[in-house]
Amino acid sequence: MAEYYWLLVASALVFMMQAGFLCLESGRIRSKNSINVAAKNISDFIISTTLFWLFGFGIMFGDSVAGLFGISDFFFDDQHTPWQISFFLFQMMFCGTASTLTSGAVAERMTFIGYLAITVVLSAFIYPIVGHWTWSGVYPSDGPKGWLEALGFIDFAGSTVVHSVGGWVALAAIIIIGPRMGRFEEGIRLPPGNNLPLSALGTLLIWFGWIGFNGGSTLALTDDVPIILLNTFISAAWGALIAAAINYFRDGYIEVGFVLNGTIAGLVGITASCHVVSPGASVIIGAVSGVVVYFGSLLMERWRLDDALDVVPAHLFAGIWGTLSVALFGQTDKIDNGLGVLGQLGVQALGIVVVGIYCFVVGYAGMWLLNRLMPLRASKEQEEQGLNVAEHRATTELFDLLTSMQYQQNNADFSRPVPEEPFTEVGQIARKYNQVIDRVSTEIAQRDNALMRFQESEIRKSAILNSSMDCIVTINRFGSVMEFNPAAERTFGCLKKQVEGKSFIGLFIREEDRKKIFESLNSGFSTSNGLILNRRNPFRLQRSPNNDFPAEIAITKANTETSQESEYTLHIRDMTRHVKLQERLKFLAYSDPLTSLYNRTYLMESLISALLFATKQKTSVGLLFLDLDNFKIINDTLGHKAGDELLCEVARRLIGVSDQFDVIARWGGDEFVFMMTENVTESRLAQRAQQILEAMRAPVYLNEQYFTIPTSIGITHTPEDEPSLDAEKLIQQADIAMYWAKEKGRDNAQFFTPEMANIVTKKFGFEKEINDALASKQFSLVFQPKVLMEKNNILGLEALIRWNHPSKGLISPADFIPIAEESNLIIKIDEWVIDQVLQQQKVWREQGLHIVPIAVNLSGRHLVSDSLVSYISQQLKAYDMEGRLLEIEITEGVLLQDIQRCIEVMAELKALNIKISIDDFGTGYSSLSYLKRLPLDILKLDQSFVEECDRHIEDAKICETIIHLARSLDLRIVAEGVETAPQAEMLKSLGCEVFQGYYFHKPMLNVDIAKLLTSGPLAD
Q: What is the CA radius of gyration of the chain?
């Protein structure tokens, strides 16, 4: 009978943790939500207990199905032994502990019903499954152990099973629900809690309950219990100690929350390994847990994840660390599962990852679905009001008091006192508040009367206050200093006693202005020459000779009975910083901060002004639009710092070839604009462009290497017969000419011509027509067979796109494919072809034909895109086609873009059982070394070699070399463009077996291909 006594005692101790969590969470949040948090804690334990009795225990410890979940012991009843019932109660407390963690993380902004629904998800679908994987073997049942337990995974009392599970679900809830109002707003700091002593009591209750949590996991009162409890207490103490120490050394004080969280983190960290580690190891585990919870909380804040009680750092992060500690510090003789340190570490890491993925995915998906069905987040009004009232209608005396005080604040109505609840603390506060308001009202009334009586005697002081400036200096009618405030002392660099009685004009007015200011003073500052009374006068003052500064001076007069005793107050503001700021703003507004050249804004304003002037004066304005060739390569290979240095060097060289009338601006990125306004002719523009090209060709030293800066330049100018050309149009012309220079081989300059614009316009119109053709189904496919030796041996097909334009008729692919390849249109065309090919194969299969692989030509842009493999895989599934029936053809030129990316994509295509061929082989510039790196199946011999292979020995030799190369690399060779019998015979004699061309078959419609496929293809 005694064998289950300890389980019952441990169950009671673990149940005590529920009270601890309730106290901890209720004390750590704002009082307006404390009742709501307490209600959640009790409710989630009720729900988790019910679900665990119904089927949670059966899933977790019932007869195992492949180590994944149990299928017996549902509706736990009195047919079980006392020990089994004791074990059930003990495990039920564990389930309640896991369930209650989420409430703290999402406190103060989650609806009560939503939280209960999440508790159902965790208790029913997450905790029992994870528990079965790791703990099912501790309870007698049929079937295998849980699969993680069978691998040797150890989590003695639940660092992962209980705490990480709860932490993962809490993390998912935090992400979905979002932060509390004002949590991450600058200048707002939410209070750390309403009752920290209650939270400390809760932490002690949790610590006390952990005796049963860890000690009870032996399932009997054995000799191991004392050392387990010792390790537990040591780890908790060191967790709190280290967290508090880091907090003190980093922040200069100790925040109570880190002491509490450090304690809990230490308890969580030791829970997985407390039965197999020494007390010395427990110190390390607890200390690291303290580090983890401190920096984990900072990490959550950096990620802007609002964890109200640091549940994720204290339970999830510390739980992960504790689970790994089993392998790092566990004593091998106590673990005794045949695994070494590295093997155990791998199993522990596997368990952490698998459990984390399962819990987070299921928890996130469940909450996402719940959030769609019912809002999990409390409304803004509910959150501001507090969930005590919003969710439970549970007002408090303090809440009523604050409501009354808020009314007084909003309406400025203090005529009615706030309600006073007798014989309570809050009532005493309300009574004292009413007394303070009465006294303040009385004092304000008395002060208003005193101020009104005192106003007439304070005319001079009120004049000074009404013109509040930085420096306040009072002078008499002779200019002698009477008052000199501290701000004036700081501004002028001298003390009041040093200047009192001396001439302000002689000390602080520049010598060239003194006569004028003396005249202003003698006229009472009423003449237009010099300073004027009651105005803000911009002026320059001096601190000492040759040390002047800009200032703004306002002068007021203190009138007396006789003008002989007039005094003037000078309100002086030092404008040095203001002027510098204006200059800096002007620089930022019109200059490029990197190169210090003018920016686009300044250039456009200058260009508009220059065009207006040129229109009036019948002159011309010229533009040179520069783009650095291959700048992106330097930027990507050497880094942005080297790229910035290069741009600055370009700016220096451009300045070096300019004159005083030129305007040089950085247009953006690696583009620059050079504007000329003096004596603009085509010859001068061409000469200046040549100077720039020569300057740019000089090597530049970057990262201990020399580089050249080839530059493409577009040139334009306003023609004499059209002087009113607008700025945007002129920039556009120069830009078009620059791209024309790139087309001409780069590192050159080109003048704009109208034909260039027409070509660009035509190209843009062609792109639009291609888009419309895709939408209106103007494209179609024809198929050209590939044969094995003879015409009737159909080995495969190649899909060829055709465009039947409604007004232009048939348009050759050679006309529209290059244009499409310059934009994302080529990807749309490729996807359309792939879809049509698979759709056609499905039709042929349903007709009972012998379908063969169909090759699709793929663009380089599409090959290296992220969407290719997923799209092909999706379409194969949609049409229920095998990958072997699809072949991808690429040209050699594709390989020059990004060989490593090409290899990765080809490998993914090969995984789908798709064959890959290189089209037009031998015509590109790719290295033969690529062939041994690329996962290829087929080389296609280009038509240019096939065309004269029967007449020219050189072409025959090239064909023979490529055929032997393909055979040596175990690749199939296909000769394309075979149009005559002599060509076919010559290629056969050289060893080629597969042919494609007009000699065998022309491109054919699908109905004609269907007739060829009725006899069946030749197998590979």
A: 42
Residue 183: count other Cβ atoms within 10 Å of its Cβ.
Answer: 17
Distance CA 67, CA 136 (A): 8
- 3-class DSSP assignment, residue 994: strand
A 10 A CB-CB count for 760 gives 15
DSSP H or E run through 277: none
What does the alpha-carbon distance between residue 447 and residue 443 come to, in Å, rounded to a whole number?
Answer: 6
SS3 call for 482? strand
Contact assessment for residue 796 and residue 786, using Cβ atoms and an 8 Å cutoff: yes
From the first residue on, what is the mean pLDDT of each consecutive set of 10 residues in the chain (1020 residues)?
A: 80 91 85 82 90 92 91 87 90 89 84 88 91 91 88 93 94 91 75 81 93 91 93 95 94 89 95 94 96 94 89 94 95 89 94 95 92 87 77 67 68 72 68 77 75 60 55 85 86 86 86 82 76 81 85 78 70 82 71 86 88 85 88 74 87 89 88 90 89 88 80 87 74 86 83 76 67 81 90 89 83 75 78 92 90 89 83 91 90 65 86 86 56 81 82 84 84 89 87 89 89 63
The secondary structure of the chain in percent helix, strand, coil, rounded to multiples of 5, reads 60, 15, 25
| Helix or strand (DSSP H, E) at 170 | helix 165-177
pLDDT for res 756: 77
- Nearby residues of 256 by Cβ (< 8 Å), 6 or more positions away: 192, 196, 199, 200
Contacts of 432 (CB under 8 A, 6+ apart): none
What is the C-alpha to C-alpha distance for residues 761 and 845, in angstroms, rounded to an integer?
45
Within 10 angstroms of residue 727's Cβ, the number of other Cβ atoms is 19
Count of all residues that appear for the chain in the document = 1020
Q: Hey, is 564 helix, strand or coil? A: helix
| C-alpha span between 306 and 928 (Å, rounded) | 56
Backbone φ/ψ region at 547: left (φ over 0), alpha (ψ -120 to 50), beta:
beta
Q: Of 158, 95, 101, which Cα lies nearest the Cα of 126?
A: 95
Distance of CA 317 to the CA centre of its chain: 22
Our CA angle for 675, 676, 681, nearest 5°, is 130
Cα(845)–Cα(81) distance, integer angstroms: 64
Determine the Cα–Cα distance for residues 668 and 601; give it in Å rounded to an integer.
11
Q: Hey, CA dihedral for 417, 421, 426, 427, is it positive or negative?
A: positive
**Quick one: pLDDT at residue 362?**
94
Rounded to 10 degrees, the C-alpha dihedral 850/855/856/857 comes to -160
Specify the 3-state DSSP secondary structure of 628: strand
Q: What distance in Å separates the CA atoms of residue 22 and residue 19, rounded to the nearest whole number? A: 5
Q: Which pLDDT score, from 0 to 100, does residue 1019 have?
A: 44
SS3 542: strand
Strand order in the sheet with 481-484: 481-484, 471-476, 567-574, 547-558, 536-544
Per-residue burial over 919-938, b = 16 or more CB atoms within 10 Å of its CB, e = otherwise: bbbbebebeeebbeebebbb
Please check whether residue 306 is in contact with residue 183, taking contact to mean a CB–CB distance below 8 angstroms: yes
Question: Do the bridges between strand 622-628 and strand 886-891 make them parallel or antiparallel, or are there none, so unpaired?
Answer: unpaired
Per-residue DSSP letter, 883: G
φ and ψ of 992, to 5 deg? -80, 140
End-to-end alpha-carbon separation of the chain, Å? Answer: 75
DSSP codes of every residue in 745-789: TSSSEEE--HHHHHHHHHHHHHHHHHHHHHHTT-EEEEEEEEEES
The backbone torsions φ and ψ at residue 281, rounded to the nearest 5 degrees and listed phi first, read -65, -35
Neighbours of 234 (CB within 10 A): 21
The 3-state DSSP class for residue 591 equals strand
| Torsion angles phi and psi, residue 907, rounded to 5 | -60, -40
CA–CA distance, 989 with 842 (Å, rounded to integer)? 37
pLDDT at residue number 260: 93
